[in-house]
């Protein structure tokens, strides 16, 4: 099979593989729970609330590999066996690293706007089920971070690996390389693909209290991938976002701060927030949109000027 197979069929394989990986994931969770709790299965429910951080860390690790990395590898090996580098958008050229830095700067400038959205999002009535999902998600993250605060520097490295490195690589492969690319081919509209992927990206985290913030991040990551045509800026931006958040929590908890203090948003007045947001959009336009249009124009001009062989 090859990349010329209809993108909808490729999407079915991607999503089917994602859902299919739930069975081995659940099986591994049960096995790990029984092993860690010495045969007692009852603690499964309490571990989901952060009572066994080591198990939570193992589950988070397995989720990244099985639910996000493996499905993309399956699609690549079935449909893009002879063209994997192009499918993965694997480009380590210097220009891509510079675009990655530009993406980080633009996202940093969007932080005040994201905090305003987060405060608004927190006032939503998402219902009891989604509130429980958000609470469970936050307990999972805090359980892992609290465990690492007692393990010193090695624990910090493990936390960064599980919460920053793996999600940055595996989730960007699944959502941008897999889902967004295939949706773009299916819809024949890259912008619709970016929005739909960002919505799914935010929802999959099952944290409705942070839905809008993750949606904005998903939009930024989507357009960075679209205009850079490389996975490098996305992985770097996603990694730094997660790493800064988790390392900040690590040192804050070591210094005795409470969870409530950590969740306080960094709120600016509307005027500097607006200025930062406009600056982020201008930076993104200059570094990504303008550059891509310039490269495309140069490519079109070279094709026009090239001699025609009769």
Q: What is the mean predicted local confidence, pLDDT?
A: 81
Which band does the percent of strand residues land in? under 5%
Helix fraction by DSSP (H/I, runs of at least 4): over 70%
Question: Roughly how many Å is the radius of gyration?
Answer: 21 Å
| Poorly predicted segments | 43-50
Count the DSSP helices. Answer: 14
- The SSE order reads HHHHHHHHHHHHHH
Structural class: mainly alpha
Number of strands: 0
Indicate how many domains the architecture comprises.
1
Main sheet: strands, sense, barrel: none
Backbone shape: globular
C-alpha end-to-end distance: 34 Å
Structural account:
By secondary structure, the chain is mainly α. It has one domain (7-82, 91-292). It is built from 14 helices and no strands. The protein has helices at 7-20, 22-36, 44-47, 53-79, 84-88, 94-109, 111-122, 127-149, 152-187, 190-204, 211-228, 232-254, 259-262, 270-305. Helix 4 runs parallel beside helix 9 and helix 7 (111-122) packs antiparallel against helix 11. The chain is globular. Mean pLDDT is 81; it is low at 43-50.
List keywords for this structure.
mainly alpha, 310 residues, globular, 0% strand
Short description:
The chain has one domain.
């Amino acid at each position: 099979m090859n990349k010329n197979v209809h993108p909808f069929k490729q999407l079915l394989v991607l999503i089917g593989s994602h859902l299919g990986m739930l069975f081995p994931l659940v099986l591994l969770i049960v096995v790990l729970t029984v092993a860690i709790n010495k045969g007692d299965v009852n603690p499964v429910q309490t571990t989901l609330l952060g009572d066994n951080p080591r198990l939570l860390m193992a589950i988070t690790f397995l989720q990244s590999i099985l639910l996000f990395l493996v499905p993309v590898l399956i699609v690549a090996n079935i449909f893009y066996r002879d063209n994997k580098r192009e499918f993965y958008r694997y480009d380590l050229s210097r220009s891509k690293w510079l675009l990655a830095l530009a993406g980080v700067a633009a996202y940093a400038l969007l932080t005040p706007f994201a905090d305003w959205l987060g405060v608004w999002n927190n006032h939503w009535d998402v219902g009891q089920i989604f509130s429980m999902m958000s609470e469970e998600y936050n307990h999972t993250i805090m359980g892992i971070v609290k465990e690492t605060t007692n393990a010193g520097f090695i624990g910090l490295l493990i936390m960064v690996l599980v919460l920053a490195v793996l999600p940055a690589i595996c989730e960007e492969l699944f959502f941008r390389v897999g889902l967004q690319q295939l949706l773009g081919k299916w819809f024949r509209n890259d912008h619709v693909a970016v929005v739909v992927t960002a919505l799914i990206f935010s929802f999959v985290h099952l944290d409705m209290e942070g839905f809008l913030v993750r949606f904005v991040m998903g939009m930024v990551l989507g357009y960075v991938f679209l205009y850079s045509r490389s996975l490098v800026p996305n992985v770097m931006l996603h990694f730094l976002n997660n790493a800064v958040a988790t390392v900040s929590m690590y040192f804050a908890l070591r210094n005795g701060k409470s969870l409530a203090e950590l969740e306080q948003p960094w709120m600016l007045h509307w005027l500097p927030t607006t200025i930062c947001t406009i600056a982020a959009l201008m930076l993104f336009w200059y570094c990504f949109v303008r550059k891509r249009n310039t490269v495309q124009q140069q490519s079109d001009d070279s094709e026009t000027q090239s001699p025609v062989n009769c």
